[in-house]
Design a protein that fits this description.
The complex is a heterotetramer, with 1 copy of chain A (about 300 residues), 1 copy of chain B (about 500 residues) and 2 copies of chain C (about 325 residues). Chain A is an alpha/beta fold and about 300 residues long. Helix content of chain A is about 45%, strand content about 20%. The N and C termini of chain B lie far apart (about 50 Å). Chain B has a 6-stranded mixed beta sheet, with helices on both faces. Chain B has a 6-stranded mixed beta sheet with strand order 18-19-20-15-21-22, sandwiched between helices. Chain B is of the alpha/beta class. Chain B is about 35% helix and about 25% strand. With about 325 residues, chain C is mostly helical. Chain C has a single domain, classed as ABC transporter involved in vitamin B12 uptake, BtuC. Chain C has a two-stranded antiparallel ribbon with strand order 1-4. In chain C, strands 2-3 form a two-stranded antiparallel sheet. In chain C, β2 and β3 form a beta hairpin. The chains are: A alpha/beta (about 300), B alpha/beta (about 500), C mainly alpha (about 325). Chains in contact: A-C, A-D, B-C, B-D, C-D. Chains B and D meet through α2 and β8 of B and α10 and α11 of D. Bound molecules: adenosine-5'-triphosphate (2 copies), alpha-L-arabinopyranose (ARA) and magnesium ion (2 copies). The site of alpha-L-arabinopyranose has 7 residues of chain A, from loops. Chains C, D: It comes from Paramesorhizobium deserti. Chains C, D: InterPro entries: ABC_transp_permease. Chains C, D: It is found in: Cell membrane. Chains C, D: Keywords: Cell membrane, Hydrolase, Membrane, Transmembrane, Transmembrane helix.
């Protein structure tokens, strides 16, 4: 029979998910199945999306959920609609907070990726030979998103472990997840600590860190005194690297939408068509990309 | 020779043929009266003349030129100015800005603020109206607003001016100012189309007259001289009305309403009076005399400073219309547009809104009863409408007024009825029916307070009259002592005491 | 021909247009008219549908409520957290209803008594209540301990899921209240002319407070069902719900200027929103194009209704 | 005492209250009253401030515009994309202004001529335009090729960044238009009494179309400056802007019922919003509590203004 697979993501506007879909489409073309792409921003939309997939006769779906605690409901809904379920990016958890091990998952650990960011920052601080006591850190935060909290906390744990003074870390809460909000929040932090010479910045994604970098520029901090490390590695970051002269946006941790999109779709297809169950857990790592090497890093990850 | 001519004008609305084949003409420099029952089509004709609405058929000629204008602006450029029945002012703007609206003075879109205010000041002084041009319209009383409207017509040099019931909110003094303005305009050769339900005014001002009935031309009098009141009434309503007041003696009962030292923000001097069962107490005064204020305080519509109101010896709590209704008192307010009609809702709902509580057990409606109440008052008050389900906003002004009256006249178990200018804008035929209803209610033992601004009317239907002037009760006159000059004298403010209310 | 015109332009015109569109969609969109899809579709509009019932009253009385989304999320959280803490689901549900009602009551009192603009008041409470939900849960979804909580949403009566029955019940109840009770007529009167209604003896302040309180409680019902459906209390749930609900109402002919509302219209409005979403996903329309299509559907639906009603000559109101 | 009361309740009461609050904040919040922080604060309100100028007109004429956020994002994208494609920044700016104006024109025509409710129309265009922005950029941020584009936002005149100057300029221009020109008075008249304005010969339809078109163009200005500030065109920029802008206007005393507006009020409204955000961050208030605080500030600000104006007795009009 015809294979139909759903690919549900929480934020279709994000380039990341556009990429995941793009690579999943590639798999669909190669294997000749139909891919149904649905955006579902909250728990309610997820439920409707699953019903909708069931109604159109799909056999399984891959999902990146808006909230991992939605787990039990999604599992139940998938079962009710007789759909095979696999998660991508973020792993479902049960009411007790432990991961639902039965659901095959491919993803990244938010904490891990945060740690990669933190490590990159520490390495660069050391390389530039700054005194950590004289460095301020901007934590561009968006605390209502659990993944965002895990990422920045991951970065902070590494900073602290390396001896970065906790009192030098300043919170810049974004009202929304766009660059302008991050820019405004970071500006306030910079102005509050006008005497600090060196700054590092991290946050939920590239957009957040870019906001902090723009803020440092607008208050006149030279680019070489700023180390911002983002997460994502899509256009926002690449644009930054393409600028004629280096900015405070030092690097970004690229995660590969290719594996997430292409491989999950392929796994699901094989599960449906050949009964070959995917591995329960596949974790992918992020790779740090800098101004000088981002093209090769991207190539290595299979994205262009 | 004819200066303004209507040729075969027809206009229909869903369910209503407002005008059918109206043709008549008016001479240069003439004041032409337009009369007819409520809903006869007068305002519709005027709206077509103003360019606001277009006729289904027919044409308008001015100075023998056929007019093809399609908007108010075009009509204005053709020399036509219309003062509509409902006030058309912007409350948030000043008097001067309202007068200039649509044609502000200035260069390149920048308003010349001085010219704006000064021209208006000069003009108002010249006309003899005492209004501050920089005052916001929202701060003015209804009567004053009406004067602003009239000033608008006079200020702009027009060839044709149409006035749709301009005196309905004016007292005799303001009306006099208007009449002298009309004389002046007439002398300049302006054609004036004048709509009114007041026969006195028509006879006093008009040179010629057209009567409409049910959207058709009922009569055209190229010369008004020689016609009689009775004749015109018959042409309007299709029947004779002999004694329009129809007052008759009624026995008065115990004291029903007692008011002691009532005062509020706009009624600073405390007012006291009382009304007996079966009594109709008329309140007369000039505009701004404070009668409406008194009524609103009585009812709890505005904030009471001090004083007490009691019905059959039981005190009525202040500042709460609902409580007043429960205590047996209702108020029919004077401003039908802001305080009366409920736009967007049917005639039926507008009538039943208050009285339905008597026949809605547990808050659940009784549609049959509601319909029958509505039908009853539509018939009794002769509301011209295709159906009781019609949106009240689609009714003519007078018919809206009738609907609101219906709301209060349909109340049951009421002890005190306060009505403020009930006959404003209402045709002669319906007026006498309203009086009859009032007499009937009084005979049932109600105490009735009726606020009126026309002396003959207040004298015609009241058992007793209170005259108010500048926020005080200036005189109290029993029916046996009714005397036109005495009442008027009491209503006129003492010129030296130049006080404000 | 003429009688067709009459039907289209009549009172029930919107319904007729909608029925026509429904038939067309049923024929041309594969998998649309299956029992499964219909039930899925109805379930997807439960939240909007339920909240629309009272939003209709709110708009009809010339008010506005932006806080519904936050209240749905907040009361859902409360239901879950109190159920977990007390071990009793009925207790949790009661707490949610009370909290929802309390939010509505506060809205109502501030708007009616302190006379603060409804838009600003509910914009403020929208943020405050969302803040409470986030603070209470530390920004994370709260799981449900007792799985029988899920049964609220999962159970079926005559093969139809309970939430759909509840929505239908509320449609009937509020339709009745609007058309057949003094409360409904007074709501419309207030919307038509608040001052005139006050003078006609309607206790306008009390009415407004009641409408907001009801709205809050109905949001709690929606929040409970939502929490049960998604098996957790989510502080970020139902963001943007306010605009969807208001759109559904306006689509259904409720006038933002007050005084005009009909339950059938609102139901049709809710269904149009649901069907649009459903069909776009069935047709696999790309996410970005969905924005555009959604916008055009909104426009066309109101435009059709406008043409209809202006042809029917609603006059100069 | 009495003269104090007079000042507080007078025309400029809001301003006085605001000035008082400003002084208090300056004293008690460390780092608030520094030149750097002031400039940062002003820059943070540039988008809201600029768009408020025309939103004020829109609300004053009894209309409503929810599409501003999308238009800001879309025209920012256009500015960047056209600049990149043509290699000419002026050309890009022109294209952005035209596109912004076109969105506004469409809004205006649909609302004024097809007589579709402004809320629904702009809710629809909000989605359609956002869809366009996403489609045009494939959902990705678009980088700027020519770095001199950044100079729009980075350059300074007398030590003050250009965007702030532009905002101030627009405040002056639109303040003048509102108070001193036929256009401004007609706007207020339309909002105060549309029927009367029409009967006085004001071309209401044309005015509304103009207001929306201007709004679109002003959004484009904001979009260009935003793109320059964040050095790229982002299709997701400025979501939710509409509610912030409308709040700022209402805070500033613009009546949603039309007819009442003042530029100083709107400026104060914009500043209150900016200061609230800034101070909360300076005081290190936790994110979730910020929601709550933001809500209360909104409420208190309108409440104060209401007390003031009801004490001043605005009558029942
Ligand atoms: N020139 C004026 N300026 C300001 N307020 C006025 C002016 N004239 C009257 N008012 C007030 O406006 C309100 C409504 O005026 P309205 O013309 O209805 O007169 P009124 O006081 O109700 O008395 P009446 O019913 O006797 O005419 C009243 O409170 C009146 O005192
Ligand atoms: N927009 C409308 N829709 C439906 N019917 C209307 C509309 N406007 C007016 N009518 C009807 O047309 C008829 C004529 O109304 P018009 O206002 O011309 O009466 P009028 O002679 O001015 O009455 P009045 O003395 O009460 O002012 C009335 O029956 C009225 O109900
Ligand atoms: O939301 C993030 C998304 O932005 C991308 O980074 C992948 O992981 C998801 O959790
Ligand atoms: Mg009339
Ligand atoms: Mg009066």
């Amino acid at each position: 029979a015809d294979v139909k697979i759903g690919f549900v993501v929480k934020q279709p506007e994000e380039p990341w998910f556009q990429d995941e879909w793009k690579f999943a489409d590639q798999a669909a073309k190669e294997k000749g199945f139909t891919l149904v792409k649905i955006g579902a921003q909250d728990g309610e939309k997820v439920q409707s999306a699953i019903d909708n997939l069931g109604a159109q006769g799909a056999q399984g779906f891959i999902i990146c959920v808006p909230d991992v605690k939605l787990g039990p409901g999604i599992v139940a809904k998938a079962a009710a609609n007789d759909l095979k379920l696999m998660t991508v990016d973020d792993r479902l958890v049960g009411a007790d907070g432990n991961p639902l091990e039965d659901v095959p998952h491919m993803g990244i650990s938010a904490t891990k990726i945060g740690e990669t960011v933190g490590q990159a920052i520490i390495d660069e601080i050391k390389k530039r030979d700054w005194d950590m006591k004289e460095v301020g850190a901007i934590r561009v935060s968006y605390d209502q998103l659990p993944t965002a909290v895990d990422r920045v906390e991951g970065a902070i744990s590494v900073l602290k472990a390396a001896g970065f003074p906790a009192e030098n870390i300043h919170d810049a809460p974004q009202a929304k997840t766009d660059t302008e909000a991050a820019l405004n929040a970071a500006t306030t932090v910079l102005n509050k600590h006008a005497n600090v010479k060196y700054w590092v910045a991290f946050g939920l994604n590239d957009e957040a860190v870019l906001g902090a970098v723009r803020a440092s520029e607008s208050v006149g901090i030279p680019a070489e005194n700023v180390i911002g490390v983002g997460i994502g590695g899509a256009e926002s970051a690449i644009n930054e690297f393409k600028k004629p002269s280096a900015t405070g946006f030092f690097g970004t941790v690229i995660i590969s939408p290719k594996r997430h999109g292409y491989e999950t779709a392929l796994n699901m297809y094989e599960w449906i068509a050949d009964g070959k169950e995917p591995p329960k857990l596949t974790l992918t790592a992020g790779s740090l990309a800098l101004r000088g090497d981002y093209e090769t890093v991207r190539k290595d990850l299979g994205i262009e | 020779m004819a200066f303004l001519e209507f040729r075969n004008i027809s206009k229909g609305y869903p369910g209503v043929q407002a005008l059918s084949g109206i043709s008549f003409s008016v001479e240069k420099g003439a004041v032409h009266g337009l009369m007819g029952e409520n809903g006869a089509g007068k305002s519709t004709l005027i709206r077509i003349l103003s360019g606001d609405q277009s006729a289904d058929t027919g044409s308008i000629l001015i100075d023998d030129g056929e007019q093809n204008y399609r908007s108010v602006r075009d009509a204005f450029h053709a020399g036509v100015i219309v003062i509509h029945q409902e006030l058309q002012l912007v409350p948030e703007l000043s008097v001067a800005e309202n007068l200039w609206l649509g044609r502000f003075p200035g260069k390149a879109g920048v308003i010349d603020g001085r010219t704006l205010v000064e021209t208006v000041r000069t003009k108002l002084e010249e006309i003899g109206i005492d209004i501050d041009p920089t005052a916001k319209v929202s701060s003015l009383s209804l009567g004053t607003r009406q004067m602003v409207e009239i000033a608008k017509a006079v200020m702009l040099e027009a060839r044709v001016i149409a006035l749709d019931e301009p005196t309905s909110s004016l007292s005799s003094r303001e009306s006099e100012i208007l009449f002298s303005l009309i004389e002046r305009l007439k002398a300049k050769g302006t054609v004036i189309l004048y709509v009114s339900h007041r026969l006195d005014e028509i006879f006093r001002l008009c040179d010629s007259l057209t009567v409409l009935r049910d959207g058709k031309l009922a009569a055209h009098h190229p010369k008004i001289a020689g016609t009689t009141r009775e004749q015109i009434i018959a042409e309007m309503v299709g029947r004779e009305i002999s004694n329009i007041w129809g007052w008759r003696e009624r026995p008065l009962g115990d004291m029903r309403l007692e008011v002691k030292n009532l005062s509020g923000p706009k009624l600073r001097n405390p007012v006291s009076f009382s009304v007996r069962r079966g009594e109709i107490l008329g309140f007369f005064g000039l505009i701004g005399a404070g009668r409406s204020e008194m009524a609103r305080l009585l009812y709890g519509a505005d904030h009471r400073h001090q004083g007490s109101v009691s019905i059959d010896g039981v005190a009525v709590s202040a500042n709460n219309p609902k409580a007043a209704i429960t205590a047996g008192m209702v108020l029919c307010p004077e401003d039908r547009k802001f305080d009366g009609i409920i736009q967007g809702r049917s005639i039926e709902e507008n009538i039943a809104i208050s009285s339905r509580r008597h026949f809605s057990p547990f808050g659940i409606l009784n549609p049959k009863k509601e319909a029958s109440v509505a039908e009853q008052f539509i018939a009794r008050l002769r509301v011209r409408t295709p159906s009781r389900r019609q949106d009240v906003i689609n009714l003519s002004g007078g018919n809206q007024q009738k609907v609101i009256l219906g709301r209060w006249l349909s109340e049951q178990g009421i002890k005190v009825l306060v009505i403020d200018e009930p006959t404003r804008g209402i045709d002669v035929g319906a007026k006498s029916e309203i009086y009859e209803i009032l007499y009937g209610l009084a005979a049932d033992g109600l105490a009735i307070i009726v606020i009126l601004s026309e002396l003959p009317e207040v004298m015609g239907i009241s058992d007793r009259i209170m005259v108010m002037c500048q926020g005080r009760i200036a005189a109290e006159v029993a029916r046996t002592d009714f005397d036109e000059r005495r009442i008027l004298a009491a209503a006129l403010p003492d010129r030296n005491a130049a006080g404000t209310i | 021909m003429n009688s067709l015109k009459k039907i289209l332009l009549g009172e029930q015109g919107l319904l007729v247009i909608f029925a026509g569109a429904f038939v067309v969609v049923s024929i041309f969109v594969p998998n649309f008219l299956t029992e499964r899809n219909m039930l899925g579709l109805l379930q997807s509009v439960v939240t909007i549908g339920i909240v629309s019932c009272t939003m209709m009253f709110c708009l009809a009385s010339r008010d506005f409520d932006l806080s519904v989304g936050s209240t749905v999320a907040f009361s859902g959280m409360i239901a879950v957290m109190v159920s977990n803490a007390s071990g009793s689901i009925p207790f949790g549900l009661l707490a949610a209803l009370l909290c929802g009602g309390a939010v509505g009551l506060v809205n109502g009192v501030v708007i009616a008594k302190l006379r603060i603009n409804a838009l600003i008041t509910t914009l403020a409470t929208m943020q405050i209540v969302r803040g409470f939900a986030l603070i209470a849960s530390d920004g994370r979804a709260v799981g449900i301990n007792d799985p029988s909580f899920y049964q609220l949403a999962l159970s079926r009566i005559f093969t139809i899921p309970t939430p759909i029955w509840i929505m239908i019940l509320l449609f009937i109840v509020f339709g009745f209240i609007l058309n057949r009770t003094v409360f409904g007529k007074n709501t419309l009167a207030i919307g038509g002319n608040p001052e005139a209604s006050r003078l006609a003896g309607v206790n306008v302040d009390r009415m407004r407070i009641w409408i907001f309180t009801l709205q809050g409680m109905v949001c709690a019902v929606a929040g409970i069902l939502l929490a049960s459906r998604i098996t957790s209390g989510q502080p970020n749930a139902a963001t943007g719900l306010e605009l969807s609900v208001i759109s559904a109402c306006v689509l259904g002919g409720v006038s933002l200027a007050g005084g005009r509302a009909a339950m059938t219209g609102v139901i049709v409005g809710v269904l149009i929103m649901g069907i649009a979403e459903n069909v776009m996903n069935l047709l696999n329309i790309q996410a970005f194009y969905q924005y555009v299509v959604r916008g055009f559907i909104l426009l066309i639906a109101v435009l059709l209704d406008n043409l209809r009603s202006s042809a029917a000559g609603r006059g100069r109101a």
